[in-house]
């Protein structure tokens, strides 16, 4: 089904993304990123130069000023994931969807001036650290504390599973600045690479996204200046997280639709070229019916995500609607990738093939950004009230 959300500007931007990927996201590069467990800085700088990242940074700070227009980000996801470069897509996403928005929407003027120009160019890479070894879904159970001292805070604690956590120059970090677990007991502080007592060097081994780092962070009496308190006021951290979560969830829904579409395309091409019993795999009725199912699911995924992107553009995407988009899209993504792997036969299990990598990458889409159970809980609360 033809999508109707894009105009000429978007299609021109798509050409830029394709050109960038052709030059900088080669198979050789992918293998290097996977061997290193991270995307190299030169590639991120090239992405900044090409205008592929920093889309959400306002123009006055050197970005493209597209924070509310997720269609441009969707094009980056569609093309990058479609090129079999899931890790690169993930690294771009952390910068634009998880780090930059906290500074753009909630940062003080000084914070915007300090961080945004470098975030637009890729000279400064960001990450967002909420999850801890003992608290993920239940974020108000975090233990990392920021104790007020003269001129700033002393931070102690640990975070885990932080995407781009090793490569980040700055980490927007969810900390406790008050007692108990009331929403106003939390704040967001910017932790900077090189601060004494801040260790973000430990990478975790993952099932998928092998070319994109995920790290453990530890904080031992890290002094963080007051200037790094997001928004300049204590006690806003929980509300600030809630403000950006619809965007984070939309981004995962769109990534899932992009991966679903890619799964369909890779599978269609494969079954058209592979033969068994003297026929194309595509000629077996089972294959034809599955392809019909896949194509239809992809259409519905985009219809739903396109609608969500337009709601987001008009600042109307609620937390509940974003939660629905996230869990529904990632559940469909898993089904599509599973069919795709199956129709590739043994090759579907070999990570040289993009379908196998995308299958492994996609598993975490149902876990991070809030698990799909938590998403259903958010939606059900609106239907039947809170437990
Ligand atoms: C590769 C990767 C990258 C990540 N990137 C980041 C990042 O950049 N920043 C960050 O802060 N975090 C990140 N995370 C963490 C991720 O968001 C959490 O893992 C996720 O929110 C779940 O938290 P948890 O692991 O503590 O699981 P738990 O909260 O312990 O949940 C365990 C299980 O219990 C279920 N459960 C929990 N509560 C309920 C409930 N009320 N009702 C029903 N079921 C429930 C969950 O759905 C899940 O199935 C990442 C994780 C991974 C694996």
> How much helix is in the residues?
40-55%
User: Helix/strand/pairing class, anyone?
Assistant: alpha+beta
Describe the global form: globular
The CATH homologous superfamily of the largest domain corresponds to Butyryl-CoA Dehydrogenase, subunit A, domain 3
Mean pLDDT: 97
- Which cofactors or ions or other ligands sit in this model? flavin-adenine dinucleotide
Descriptive notes:
The chain has 387 residues and is an alpha+beta fold. It folds into three domains: 8-124, Acyl-CoA dehydrogenase/oxidase, N-terminal domain (Butyryl-Coa Dehydrogenase, subunit A, domain 1), CATH 1.10.540; 127-235, Butyryl-CoA Dehydrogenase, subunit A, domain 2; 239-384, Up-down Bundle (Butyryl-CoA Dehydrogenase, subunit A, domain 3). The chain contains eleven helices and nine strands. The chain has helices spanning 8-24, 27-36, 41-50, 70-82, 86-106, 109-121, 237-273, 285-313, 319-343, 354-362, 372-384, and strands spanning 126-129, 145-149, 152-163, 170-176, 186-192, 198-203, 214-225, 275-276, 279-280. The strands form three sheets. Strands 2-3-7-6 form a four-stranded antiparallel β-sheet, with helices on one face. Helix 4 crosses helix 7 and helix 9 (319-343) packs antiparallel against helix 10 (354-362). The longest helix has 37 residues, at 237-273. It is globular, with a radius of gyration of 21 Å. Residues 128-131, 136-137, 161-163, 206, 214, 364, 367-368, 370-371, 373-374, 377 line the site of flavin-adenine dinucleotide.
């Amino acid at each position: 089904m033809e999508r109707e959300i894009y105009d000429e500007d978007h299609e021109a931007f798509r050409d830029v993304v394709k050109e960038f990927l052709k030059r900088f996201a080669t198979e050789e590069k992918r293998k290097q990123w996977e061997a290193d467990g991270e995307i190299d800085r030169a590639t991120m700088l090239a992405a900044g130069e090409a205008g592929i990242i920093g889309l959400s940074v306002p123009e006055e700070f050197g970005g493209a000023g597209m924070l509310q227009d997720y269609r441009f980000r969707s094009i980056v996801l569609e093309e990058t994931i479609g090129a079999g470069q899931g890790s690169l897509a993930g690294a771009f996403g952390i910068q634009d969807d998880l780090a930059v928005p906290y500074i753009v929407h909630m940062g003080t003027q000084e914070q915007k001036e300090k961080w945004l120009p470098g975030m637009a160019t890729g000279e400064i890479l960001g990450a967002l650290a909420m999850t801890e070894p003992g608290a993920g879904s239940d974020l108000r159970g975090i233990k990392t504390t920021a104790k007020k001292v003269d001129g700033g805070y002393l931070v102690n604690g640990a975070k885990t599973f932080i995407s781009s956590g090793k490569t980040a120059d700055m980490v927007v970090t969810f900390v406790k600045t008050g007692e108990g677990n009331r929403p106003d007991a939390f704040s967001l502080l910017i932790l900077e690479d090189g601060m004494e007592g801040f260790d973000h060097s430990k990478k975790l081994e993952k099932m998928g996204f092998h070319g994109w780092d995920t790290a453990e962070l530890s904080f031992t009496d890290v002094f963080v200046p007051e200037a790094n308190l997001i928004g300049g006021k204590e006690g806003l951290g929980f509300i600030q997280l809630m403000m950006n979560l619809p965007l984070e969830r939309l981004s995962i829904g769109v990534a899932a639709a992009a991966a679903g579409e890619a799964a369909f395309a890779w599978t269609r091409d494969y079954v058209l070229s592979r033969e068994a019993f003297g026929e194309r795999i595509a000629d077996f009725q089972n294959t034809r019916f599955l392809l019909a199912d896949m194509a239809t699911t992809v259409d519905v995924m985009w219809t739903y995500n396109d609608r969500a992107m337009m709601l987001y553009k008009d600042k109307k995407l609620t937390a509940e609607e974003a939660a629905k988009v996230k869990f529904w899209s990632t559940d469909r993504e898993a089904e599509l990738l599973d069919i795709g792997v199956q129709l590739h036969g043994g090759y579907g299990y070999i990570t040289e093939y993009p379908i196998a990598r995308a299958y492994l990458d996609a598993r975490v889409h149902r876990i991070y950004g809030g698990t799909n159970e938590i998403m259903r809980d958010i939606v059900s609360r609106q239907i039947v009230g809170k437990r």
